[in-house]
Write a structure and sequence with these properties.
The protein has about 220 residues and is of the alpha/beta class. The chain has one domain: Vaccinia Virus protein VP39 (Rossmann fold, 3-Layer(aba) Sandwich). About 40% of the residues lie in helices and about 20% in strands. The protein has 7 helices and 7 strands. Helix 1 runs parallel beside helix 4 and helix 5 runs parallel beside helix 6. The longest helix is centred in the middle third of the chain and has 17 residues. It is globular. The chain starts with a helix and ends with a strand. Bound molecules: S-adenosylmethionine (SAM). S-adenosylmethionine binds next to helix 1.
Length: about 220
């Protein structure tokens, strides 16, 4: 994606979140919640309206939501003040393609997490198909450089098998991820795959049943 494409995408998401999107937690969030303990610290990368970040925090899990849309992050910050959550939740606006900003934030989180003896869970729902190859690479390289051994990775995203299926199309950037490329890539960044599944029936919304992958991995 060139600079112009990135600006258009950012504008799309800011307009989208202005409508004050209020969705229940995702089915992927429920799946991940089953694996968490009170020591978990969820880093929700591309959190959007924070439907899942708030669900983690409501369940007593510390969480941070990161997104490039300042509109979404400002709304999330206001909502967090209104809700009396049993755990710490915070939000940061950050463009994931800015590798030095990303690295600084991750380093800061690593220090906080180690001080509080937390176990990181990097959570990426519907994020990987919303960014381009270059941003995916920057993100995975930075994750690999910074986060400690034992860090867990949980991602749900559209795969190339989804490209031909019917969609509610609203003309925003979408990339269909080739899992034959993605899985070895993640392994090459020091992650061991714990489980990998792809198919339909995972996240049906407004009659659309996307072909998705779910990947769980742990940093070696
Ligand atoms: C499909 S939404 C997913 C939101 C949320 N995870 C969910 O499941 O509802 C994709 C999100 O990625 C964010 N995003 C896209 N490109 C980004 C970038 N370069 N940096 C940061 N966030 C980005 C968008 O702002 C949007 O909130």
């Amino acid at each position: 994606m060139n600079e112009q494409g990135a600006t258009v995408t950012k504008k799309y998401w800011n307009t989208f979140y202005k409508q004050n999107v209020n969705l229940p937690k995702s089915s992927f969030c429920s799946k991940v919640q089953e694996t968490l303990t009170s020591e978990s610290f969820v880093v929700d990368i591309g959190c959007g309206s924070a439907r899942d970040t708030f669900a983690f925090a409501s369940g007593g899990i510390d969480a941070i939501g990161i997104d490039g849309s300042e509109e979404a992050i400002n709304l999330n910050k206001s909502k967090a003040k209104e809700l009396h959550l049993p755990s710490e939740v915070s939000f940061v606006t950050l463009d994931l393609c800015k590798s030095s900003d990303l690295k600084s934030l991750f380093e800061e989180l690593k220090i906080q997490g180690l001080e509080k003896r937390k176990h990181f869970v990097l959570y990426l729902r519907f994020l990987l198909h919303a960014v381009d190859d270059k941003t995916e690479k920057t993100l995975l390289d930075t994750i690999s450089d910074v986060f400690p051994q034992g860090t867990r990775f949980a991602a749900e995203f559209r795969t190339k098998e989804d490209e031909q299926l019917n969609k509610i199309y609203d003309n925003h950037y979408r990339r269909f991820v080739d899992t034959d490329r993605f899985i070895p890539d993640l392994e090459s960044k020091g992650f061991e795959i714990n489980s990998f599944f792809k198919g339909t029936g995972l996240s049906i919304y407004k009659g659309e049943d996307p072909f998705l992958a779910r990947v769980f991995a742990t940093k070696r």
